[in-house]
């Protein structure tokens, strides 16, 4: 999935805040058991019904493991914790020496300094408890457990405490994860959506195989009213069975008086009805206004990660793969779509038509199933043996051509690169008018936001780059994710990190003219910032609750995942990386994997013995959070490299002694530009030494910033680099220059370099002309500008503005206000002009106003990538804002419409700010899917940032009704409204609001990220304000 609604990816003028993090760090020891357990799907023989489908890497839910079994006290804790809906992470947090100050629950208090009275009371209490326990323990016929007294050396686990189902009867399962005793083989789904009433009925027939003898079948179902259920064992007769439901875990169960035996086949048939969802997940209704002004309705699905259960009862975990046969009824005039091609259509007695799709030719996870009922048109073509089509609402048919051509090229590229042809006979790419995420990779039926797929005649180079990039991501998923799927959401990065890496890699290969390299570099630099916080998490991390699953769709899974794959590929010789992933895909096609499976495949693809052990190296990057800071100390030709955890810590705590295997690349003054110049040194220990040739003047590590680490060169090392750059900008690649700027600002946040050093590096900028370093510098300065602005440091704001103009003003003046040749140039031009007009540079404002005037007189079209800056300026006057709002109401092209919306939200007028926030919430004039964008834009402005924060507090319950707790939309809303605070008062306010939410969001990682960010902003501002006063 591409949850980041890529249009929102802030370019330089809207700097993302440096910091985003997560609350629950994962300890490396959690994954240790992985090595010892058998691979899925072998199950332990002991009490197999208690085993959940669990990857080897998360042991805490694995039950009945004999020697690995948790001790009884832990077991008891687990049962109670589960009942209370608690996460087991809390327990490990209590053992954590450096645990985050933010924990979900109070940690157990140890009696560190008890008073005498307390000691006496404690002792008495313990004596009483111990006596009672012994009495119970030895009492004959006791009911300590359901099975009677516990035997002294018993190794049998305790029976879990079962919850009550909706009917009051005991629900026969007490885990969030489903039991592994039964496995679905195939689903036969019939759906009858009624768009006029926004409801549907359905029948689901699931054929299952019994893997271990059991007396229960447990599966998922959410918000479905099940009216009838029948069960058939083997060739026997179907009989009606009772369905128990436990709503808090979205599970249903059928209990049997006798045991279902291993190896038996059985069929469960469930009839049900439900409402089409009003949010953006499950089987949801969507609508749009067509060109004649009529409202058109449609229904579409979005199941990842946990919403297939809202459309049909199912085993809704990625490891339960099965085949699917789908039938959907419809009215004449509508079409239906599903993963597979349509097989036949029959007329029903009630006048409706029933479309039946071919049974899926591959085993699929439930989250990849999809169906749509709509009235779309398409363009198609055959690519290899696949019918490729791009669908949109009828009036946007011609906007599908670019996507069709791009997808066709990429499909051929992936077919060859992965050496496995795309396995289905058709692939549809569908633009849905009302869609929250950027896109979703449903197998054979990829769904997109309109802005992520459609390209009109007037589309700009950057819009095309975006569309190509989302298509490349979703197509890569057809292999990474769909063909080979992670066992459980803890390894989501195997899907998302890979698809993200492939999206950039494939575009660099097949569409070099899209200049995707800068975008990928920016992504990696932002990922470093987000992973530098204490509350970040390991790439592969434990997740249990639905909220934690939702929060896995974050920068660590996507961007850090992609960054470490690039680092690996860049440090391997020849085609080893490609060979390794081909081997991985071929070995595991159709099944599920763990992170270690990938590393093992890549290790086996080694060309010669003695090379890096990839598994050993890469597990240091996936099993612990954060990344290293490499310190360089040079004495003559001896260079000592030391590593430490680059941790931005708000409370001055010492970082844990993490260690990475770092493939350090480096170049020097004698050879610094060509790839052959780059040498690799693997740093595996805390400190190591490398020897340079004589007379090396300066050293630059992390060639082209392909490694996921930050470098501190020491004062002399930095001075040498700054000198070299000041004399000749071209001694380093533009990526290396951007990386130096990024590292310098990051080190300033860490307190390792003075702000004076930062400014001395920035002095070389006057000679800089390349996009990557310039946009990086603008972004870093923009972050400081915004913090000063929100602190109302008016004097410094003015000086910072002067500083930016002094360094970039000449370049701003050179911009042509025309569409540039080349995406990279265009990106720079848009960025410079948006900053210039944002800082009210008179020439910029004047030019933008003139262009808007011609645009509203319809005497001129504004080039797509300049529209934002022109609309933003227009929206600052009363007349301009009203004209823009009117245009927003009838402009058909979605990308242009969004830019207008963003401009409307950038107003500094309090009444209009209030109006637009409310409009986004109501969803009439402004679609609700755009609310996160509106909130972010309002928060960016000085006038709006406090309004936005108040709005979020006042409307929290309505927000989480529309966007689930933990979702990317909620993560974005929290970040944008709090990340520019840098004072104690704001910290207290944010903390108190989120703590008051309790289960309505207080436990989210993004909340901890917000608090940590404010603390760090506060600390950073305090440390650099004197320097800013002195030097700006
Ligand atoms: Zn994805």
Written overview of the protein:
The protein is α+β, with helices and mostly antiparallel strands and 1032 residues long. Helix content is 39%, strand content 18%. The strands form 8 sheets. The chain has an 8-stranded mixed β-sheet with strand order 5-4-8-2-1-11-14-13, with no helix packed on it. Strands 16-17-18-20-19 form a 5-stranded mixed β-sheet, covered by helices on one side. A 4-stranded mixed β-sheet has the order 27-24-23-29. Helix 21 (878-890) packs antiparallel against helix 22. The longest helix has 27 residues, at 1005-1031. Bound molecules: zinc ion. Zinc ion binds at residues 1-2, 441, 473, 477, 496, 499.
Contiguous runs where pLDDT drops below 50 for at least 5 residues: 7-48, 53-114, 133-154
The amount of helix comes to 25-40%
The best one-word shape is: globular
- What is the tally of helical segments? 29
Task: Give the gist of this structure.
The protein has 1032 residues and is α+β, with helices and mostly antiparallel strands. 39% of the residues lie in helices and 18% in strands.
SSE topology sketch:
Blueprint: H1 72-83, H2 89-94, H3 116-138, E1 182-194, E2 199-210, E3 214-220, E4 225-233, E5 239-240, E6 244-246, E7 251-260, E8 265-275, E9 282-289, E10 295-302, E11 323-330, E12 335-338, E13 342-347, E14 353-357, E15 371-374, E16 377-383, E17 386-392, H4 401-417, E18 426-432, E19 439-440, E20 445-449, H5 461-477, E21 485-486, H6 493-510, H7 516-530, H8 546-551, H9 555-571, H10 576-588, E22 592-593, H11 595-604, H12 614-622, E23 628-635, E24 638-645, E25 662-668, E26 679-683, E27 687-691, E28 699-701, E29 710-712, H13 714-727, H14 734-750, H15 755-762, H16 771-790, H17 794-814, H18 823-838, H19 842-856, H20 867-874, H21 878-890, H22 894-905, H23 910-922, H24 931-940, H25 945-954, H26 956-962, H27 968-978, H28 984-997, H29 1005-1031
Parallel strand pairs: 1-11, 17-18, 18-20, 21-22, 23-29
Antiparallel strand pairs: 1-2, 2-8, 3-7, 4-5, 4-8, 6-7, 9-10, 11-14, 12-15, 13-14, 16-17, 19-20, 23-24, 24-27, 25-26, 25-28
Helix pairs in contact: 4-5, 5-6, 6-9, 7-9, 7-14, 10-11, 11-12, 14-15, 14-16, 16-17, 16-18, 17-18, 18-20, 19-20, 20-22, 21-22, 22-24, 23-24, 24-25, 24-27, 25-27, 27-29, 28-29
């Amino acid at each position: 999935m591409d949850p980041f609604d890529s249009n929102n990816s802030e370019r330089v003028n809207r700097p993302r805040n440096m910091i985003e993090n997560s609350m629950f760090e994962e300890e490396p020891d959690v994954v240790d058991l992985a090595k010892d357990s058998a691979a899925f799907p072998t199950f332990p023989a002991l009490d197999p019904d208690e085993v959940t489908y669990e990857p080897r890497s998360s042991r805490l839910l694995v039950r009945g493991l004999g020697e690995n079994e948790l001790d009884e006290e832990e077991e008891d804790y687990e049962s109670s914790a589960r009942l209370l809906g608690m996460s087991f992470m809390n327990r490990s947090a209590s053992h954590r020496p450096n645990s985050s100050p933010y924990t979900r629950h109070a940690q157990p208090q140890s009696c560190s300094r008890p008073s005498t009275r307390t000691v006496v009371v404690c002792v008495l209490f313990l004596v009483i408890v111990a006596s009672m326990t012994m009495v119970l323990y030895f009492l004959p016929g006791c009911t300590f457990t359901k099975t009677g007294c516990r035997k002294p050396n018993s190794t049998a686990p305790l029976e879990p405490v079962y919850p009550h189902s909706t009917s009051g009867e005991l629900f026969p399962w007490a885990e969030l994860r489903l039991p592994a005793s039964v496995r679905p083989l195939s689903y036969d789904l019939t759906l009858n959506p009624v768009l006029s009433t926004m409801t549907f009925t359905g029948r689901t027939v699931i054929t299952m195989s019994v893997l271990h003898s059991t007396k229960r079948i447990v599966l998922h179902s959410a918000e479905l009213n099940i009216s009838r259920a029948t069960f058939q064992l083997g060739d026997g007769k179907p009989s009606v069975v009772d369905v128990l439901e436990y709503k808090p875990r979205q599970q249903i169960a059928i209990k049997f008086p006798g045991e279902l035996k291993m190896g038996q086949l059985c069929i469960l048939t469930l009839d049900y009805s439900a409402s089409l969802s009003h949010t953006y997940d499950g089987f949801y209704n969507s609508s749009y206004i067509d060109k004649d002004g009529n409202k058109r309705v449609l229904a579409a699905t979005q199941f990842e990660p946990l919403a297939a259960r809202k459309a049909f009862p199912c085993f809704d975990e990625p490891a339960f793969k099965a085949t699917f046969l789908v039938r959907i009824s419809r009215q004449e005039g509508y079409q239906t779509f599903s993963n597979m091609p349509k097989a036949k259509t029959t007329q029903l007695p009630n006048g409706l038509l029933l479309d039946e799709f071919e049974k899926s030719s591959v085993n699929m996870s439930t989250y990849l199933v999809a169906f749509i009922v709509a009235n779309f048109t398409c363009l198609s073509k055959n690519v290899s043996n696949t019918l490729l089509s791009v669908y949109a609402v009828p009036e946007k048919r011609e906007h599908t051509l670019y996507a069709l051509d791009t997808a066709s090229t990429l499909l051929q590229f992936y077919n060859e690169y992965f050496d496995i042809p795309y396995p289905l006979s058709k692939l549809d790419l569908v633009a849905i008018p009302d869609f929250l995420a950027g896109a979703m990779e449903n197998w054979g039926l990829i769904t997109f936001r309109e802005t992520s797929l459609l390209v009109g005649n007037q589309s700009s180079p950057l819009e095309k780059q975006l569309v190509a990039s989302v298509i490349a991501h979703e197509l890569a998923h057809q292999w990474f994710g769909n063909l080979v799927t992670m066992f459980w959401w803890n390894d989501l990065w195997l899907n998302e990190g890979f698809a993200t890496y492939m999206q950039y890699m494939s575009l660099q290969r097949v569409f070099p003219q899209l200049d995707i390299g800068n975008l990928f570099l920016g992504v990696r630099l932002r990922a470093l910032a987000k992973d530098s916080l204490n509350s970040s998490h390991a790439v592969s991390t434990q997740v249990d609750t639905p909220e934690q699953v939702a929060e896995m769709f974050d920068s660590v899974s996507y961007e850090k995942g992609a960054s470490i794959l690039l680092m690996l590929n860049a440090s391997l010789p020849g085609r080893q990386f490609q060979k390794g992933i081909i081997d991985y895909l071929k070995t595991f096609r159709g099944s599920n994997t763990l992170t270690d499976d990938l590393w093992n495949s890549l290790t086996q693809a080694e060309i010669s013995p003695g090379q890096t052990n990839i598994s050993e190296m890469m597990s240091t990057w996936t099993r612990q959070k954060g990344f290293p800071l490499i310190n360089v100390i040079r004495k003559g030709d001896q260079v000592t490299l030391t590593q430490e955890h680059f941790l931005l810590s708000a409370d001055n705590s010492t970082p844990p002694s993490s260690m990475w295997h770092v493939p350090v690349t480096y170049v020097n003054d004698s050879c610094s530009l060509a790839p052959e110049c780059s040498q690799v040194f693997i740093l595996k220990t805390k400190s190591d030494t490398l020897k340079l040739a004589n007379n090396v003047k300066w050293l630059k590590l992390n060639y082209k910033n392909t490694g996921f680490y930050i470098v501190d060169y020491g004062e002399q090392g930095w001075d040498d680099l700054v000198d070299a750059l000041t004399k000749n900008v071209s001694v380093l690649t533009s990526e290396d220059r951007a990386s130096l700027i990024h590292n310098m600002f990051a080190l300033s946040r860490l307190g390792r370099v003075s702000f004076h050093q930062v400014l001395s590096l920035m002095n070389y900028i006057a000679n800089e002309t390349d996009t990557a370093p310039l946009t990086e510098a603008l972004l870093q300065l923009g972050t400081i500008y915004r913090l000063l602005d929100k602190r109302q440091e008016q004097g410094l704001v003015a000086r910072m503005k002067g500083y930016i103009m002094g360094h970039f003003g000449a370049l701003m003046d050179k911009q042509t206000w025309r569409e540039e040749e080349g995406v990279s140039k265009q990106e720079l031009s848009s960025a410079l002009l948006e900053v210039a007009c944002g800082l009210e540079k008179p020439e910029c404002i004047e030019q933008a106003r003139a262009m808007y005037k011609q645009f509203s007189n319809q005497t001129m079209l504004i080039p797509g990538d300049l529209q934002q800056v022109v609309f933003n300026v227009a929206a600052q006057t009363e007349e301009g804002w009203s004209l823009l709002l009117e245009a927003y109401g009838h402009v058909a092209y979605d990308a242009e419409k969004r830019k207008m919306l963003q401009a409307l939200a950038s107003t500094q007028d309090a009444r209009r700010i209030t109006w637009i926030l409310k409009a986004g919430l109501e969803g009439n004039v402004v679609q609700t899917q755009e609310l996160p964008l509106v909130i972010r834009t309002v928060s960016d402005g000085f006038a709006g940032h406090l309004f936005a924060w108040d709005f979020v507090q006042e409307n929290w319950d309505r927000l989480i009704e529309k966007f689930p707790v933990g979702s990317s939309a909620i993560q974005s809303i929290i970040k944008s409204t709090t990340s520019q605070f840098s004072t104690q008062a704001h910290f207290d306010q944010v903390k108190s609001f989120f703590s008051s939410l309790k289960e309505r969001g207080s436990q989210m990682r993004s909340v901890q990220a917000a608090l940590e960010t404010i603390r760090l902003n506060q600390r950073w501002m305090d440390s650099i304000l004197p320097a800013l006063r002195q030097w700006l």
